[in-house]
Protein: SDR family oxidoreductase
Organism: Streptomyces mobaraensis
Amino acid sequence: MTTEDARATGKVTLVTGASRGIGYAIAEALVARGDRVVITGRDATALAEAVERLGADRALGVPGKAHDEAHQAAAVERAMETFGRVDHLVNNAGTNPVFGPITETDLGVARKVYETNVVSALGFAQQTWRAWQKENGGAIVNIGSIAGLSASPFVGAYGMSKAALANLTLQLAHEMAPGVRVNTVAPAVVKTKFAAALYEGREEEATAGYPLGRLGAPEDVAGAVAFLLSDAAAWITGQTLVLDGGRFLNAAV
Ligand SMILES: NC(=O)c1ccc[n+]([C@@H]2O[C@H](COP(=O)([O-])OP(=O)(O)OC[C@H]3O[C@@H](n4cnc5c(N)ncnc54)[C@H](OP(=O)(O)O)[C@@H]3O)[C@@H](O)[C@H]2O)c1
């Protein structure tokens, strides 16, 4: 048996939106522990580069938009054709195209946010359930946000979608038990391209509310997701795990 075989878990995980940022860190952590991964993203070139970094024998890229039902089906089909199984799903692709009060938010934009952040996650979950998980079991982790747990003057439509994603987690956890566990992680600010506007040029100020003294790194989220997908989390389902460097410890008064 080669070293490669010895560390193989045999599990296959579909991670959406994983050419960079949190999704890529999750894929990297899963490959490091011996999973094979199927990753998605809109930019095919960036996705191919991510596959190359992860190792072409361990990773497969399927380019497409998360909300596109044909893409959701294709990603799961390619996973089944290539690896013969799809044990785990990480719904990570997400969008936040607008900053500002929700009372002023364009309804078309609000619908787009909901479509990408919530309906896409349901679509991917239906596909992995039908193709593999219903018969064989597995686990799902949805990438939520602390924005879904409180009100915000800047990211209201996004927060609304992440709150809905947490409820989708409850629905799926209930319907898919006992074979499939479904959980959410809810990070605070993690240093990625997505969140750059929240900290770039003012990182010291942005970090002030974090008792652990720093903003999140993609690897902080990846570690928690890898745990929730593992047998160590075998009795955890329907939960939202807040990953916030202690941000919510601050008393309101
Ligand atoms: N960073 C934070 O502070 C933070 C905090 C809480 C929660 N989150 C959540 O974490 C998730 C990942 O965010 P991130 O910070 O890692 O963002 P990121 O660095 O911008 O990476 C996003 C990834 O998703 C892909 N993607 C974006 N929109 C997509 C779409 N519509 N369909 C398919 N793929 C798409 C991107 O590739 P392409 O552009 O090529 O499609 C990229 O690979 C999101 O759900 C976000 O809401 C982030």
Notes: The chain has a mean pLDDT of 95. Residues 91 and 121 are 6 Å apart (CA to CA).
